[in-house]
Amino acid sequence: MNKVVERVTRRIQKRSEKSRGDYLARIQAAASEGPTRGSLSCSNLAHGMAACGQADKDALAGNVTPNVGIISAYNDMLSAHQPFATYPQLIKQTAAAEGAVAQFAGGVPAMCDGVTQGQDGMDLSLFSRDVIAMSTAVALSHNMFDAALCLGICDKIVPGLLIGSLSFGHLPVAFVPAGPMVSGLSNKEKARVREEYAAGRIGRDDLLAAESASYHSPGTCTFYGTANSNQMLMEFMGLQLPGGSFVNPGSELRDQLTAEAVRTVLGITSLGEHYTPLGHIVDEKAIVNALVGLLASGGSTNHTLHLVAIAAAAGVIIDWDDFGDLSAEVPLLARVYPNGLADVNHFHAAGGLGYMIAQLLDAGLLHEEVRTILGEGLRKFCVEPVLDDGQLKWRGSQAKSLDNEILRPVDDPFDKEGGLRVVEGNVGRAIVKVSAVSEEHHSIMAPARVFDSQAAFTDAFNAGQLDMDFVAVLPHQGPSANGMPELHKLTPYLGVLQNRKFKVALLTDGRMSGASGKVLAAIQVVPEAAKDGILGKIKDGDMITIDAVSGELTVSADDDPAARSAPSVDLSAKRAGMGRELFAAFRERVSSAETGATVFAVE
Fold first, then answer.
1. CA 497 to CA 599: how far, in whole Å?
2. Range of the domain at 580
3. Same domain, yes or no, for 333 and 270?
4. pLDDT of residue 477
5. 282, 257, 278: which is closest to 177 by C-alpha?
6. What stretches of 438-490 show up as alpha helix (H) in DSSP?
7. Are 238 and 281 in contact (CB under 8 A)?
8. Neighbour-count burial for 482-517, b at 16+ CB within 10 Å, e otherwise
9. What are phi and psi of 537, to 5 degrees?
10. Burial class, 558, CB count within 10 angstroms (exposed 0-12 / middle 13-18 / buried 19+)
């Protein structure tokens, strides 16, 4: 076992000893009550199965027929979740064939950051994760189920489903993906068109045509952002069938994997001999495996929030130092857009997650002896699914990558480190992702230009006021201020300026996520400006240093920025309209970015 991975794991275990013990005791108490329906009165049970057919009613009236709850993020507006429309019927048919019952327990909201990017609705995005967790808990609260299947894909949906399910950690739970859309316009061309539009050289019609050619069919977006990072994490944690994350929707293999997920979760209920509750799978070692997978694949910075919140839901406490220490040790094995030009379909074809897990296991960078939905051992996930005469079969993952421009072995990585770094200094602490940033841009010292919104930045750009070296500072974008939106509207404009040979960077307490690209960005600053962080006291002209090599994040000026009075900032316009007024309690209670930016944490 790699010494750093082992040391970080022991540190997490020690830090989590009490909270993890309390969590395990709680789910053990829930499990000891036996099959859930046994505790329901006749009236309770009658309500719970009133809509069922007579055969299912007869089955549910006893305590020996397993009942699977389906929790889905289906809606038919968003491409990633539209394929889930047909899943409940397939799941119910498969359960019936196995002598079990499946009920649609509840739906959870699913919003798309791609639709709300740069819009007021983005201010609800991060908070939707905790709403999804609560919705999941509501769905399972009827106490009717022996296991659950979670149907979700995108940014906040999978973390929310997992956090909510962990409150019912005595139940076996498996995650069921829908898969990515087939490849459309190349990522290189998409990025080029966006920068051409930002520079004013093409019109909106050309931009929309390019975007529509990129996002063109049912399925998940094909770049390696948070949505596809979610799918990777579920495999690395042993919660999703191996090799199934990036199988396209609408295919026979996709349907076979969904049916197999039903059979898998039915095989690990407390009614059988292989009881494997969710809370026993998601432990300290599983969380470390997830961290390693995130770093080795160049995954989304959003998971410096989500993984912290997920771990806490299982009584496991992690922080950004754990990310930073592991990142220095875990090599980068994949180049998938925005860290490269390939998309997840190309990554899957080159060898995919099965190849990557095998490489990391052989190098001692993953914990092999862990519990999964397939039983003991992560080595079971070094396979890929195939159809053999119409039957689902599993074969060993490829011994070699089929494309070294996309996927490489541990002994010949793209980079010796994972590319996720923690920077800190008198400004506070922040996350920097350098895996897509050229080495010459890993550090900057330049004057601050402070903006109160993305719109103010783009106005300055369009007015020709930003042709200079500078660090764009966007304070009051943190969770307490306005829900911590992603700030991707800035990306193409900063990219244009960098192409013009100016030294530019971004400093903010907001998010950038897995779609962050080639411009240096220190994000998720803690303490945030709304919590009296120095970020909110920075003025135009202050010298900002962001150095991802030395780990420095500082501001310097003729006076002491920390001694300045915090400016009076009117955030009312960011806290009302588009439903934002409904989340006032979230903004008041939400924890810091480093503790997961969650309303469930108590700091």
1. 38
2. 421-595
3. yes
4. 96
5. 257
6. 454-462, 479-482
7. yes
8. bbbbbbbbbbbbbbbbbeeeebbbbbbbbbbbbbbb
9. -105, -5
10. exposed
- How far is it, in rounded angstroms, from Cα 148 to Cα 556? 53
Residues 531 and 428 in one domain: yes
Give yes or no: residues 314 and 449 share one domain.
no
Whether the CB-CB separation of 416 and 331 falls below 8 Å is answered with yes
DSSP 565: P
Contact 262, 137 (CB under 8 A): no
Coil, strand or helix: which one is 417? coil
Angle, vertex CA 406, rays to CA 1 and CA 256, nearest 5: 80
CA distance 184 to 591: 39
**pTM (2 d.p.):** 0.94
Is the Cβ–Cβ distance between 176 and 94 less than 8 Å? no
- Please name the residue that has the structure tokens 């889930």: 84
Residue 35: the pLDDT is: 61
- What single letter denotes the amino acid at residue 142? H
- Spatial strand order of the sheet with 101-107 comes to 101-107, 67-72, 147-151, 173-176
The verdict on 385 and 496 lying in the same domain is no
Asked, for residue 118, whether it belongs to a domain, the answer is yes
Average pLDDT over residues 588-596: 96
Using one digit for the tens of pLDDT, what is the confidence trace for 222-267? 889 899 999 999 999 999 999 999 999 999 999 999 999 999 999 9
The residue among 80, 202, 98 whose CA lies nearest residue 147 is 98
- Tokens 């010292």 belong to which residue? 445
Question: What SS3 class is residue 180?
Answer: strand
Query: Is there a contact between 518 and 437 (Cβ–Cβ < 8 Å)?
Result: yes
Question: Do residues 293 and 378 touch, judged by C-beta distance below 8 A?
Answer: no
